[in-house]
Amino acid sequence: MKFERIIEGKDHLWAVRDMNKPKNELAALFQKWNDAEYLWDFFLENQNDLQESST
């Protein structure tokens, strides 16, 4: 693993990168957040936790 700059030329925003994966963890997270099926499954699997925390 290594740290990878998010914005070239700036030293204030970094992400962790597993060199065996095609993307750093921040890019992978944004890809998941843009996947409606992933989000639907996530919310269904965590529905009880989400409802309890909102009360």
Structural commentary:
This protein is α+β, with helices and mostly antiparallel strands. A two-stranded antiparallel ribbon has the order 1-2. A hairpin with an 8-residue loop joins strand 1 and strand 2. It is elongated. The mean pLDDT is 91.
Features:
55 residues, two-stranded antiparallel ribbon, 3 helices, 2 strands, 47% helix, alpha+beta, single chain
Helix/strand layout:
Blueprint: E1 2-5, E2 14-17, H1 25-33, H2 36-45, H3 47-53
Antiparallel strand pairs: 1-2
Summarize the structure.
The protein has helices at about 25-35, 35-45, 45-55; strands spanning about 1-5, 15.
End-to-end Cα distance, whole Å, is: 39 Å
Number of strand elements:
2
Number of helices: 3
Strand content: 5-15%
Structural class: alpha+beta
The whole-number mean of residue pLDDT values reads 91
Radius of gyration: 15 Å
Task: Extract low-pLDDT stretches.
Answer: none
The succession of helices and strands, N to C, reads: EEHHH
Assign a percent range to the helix content: 40-55%
Query: Sheet bearing the most strands, described?
Result: 2 strands, antiparallel
Q: Please list the strands of the largest sheet in the order they lie side by side.
A: 1-2
Q: Sum up the overall morphology in one term.
A: elongated
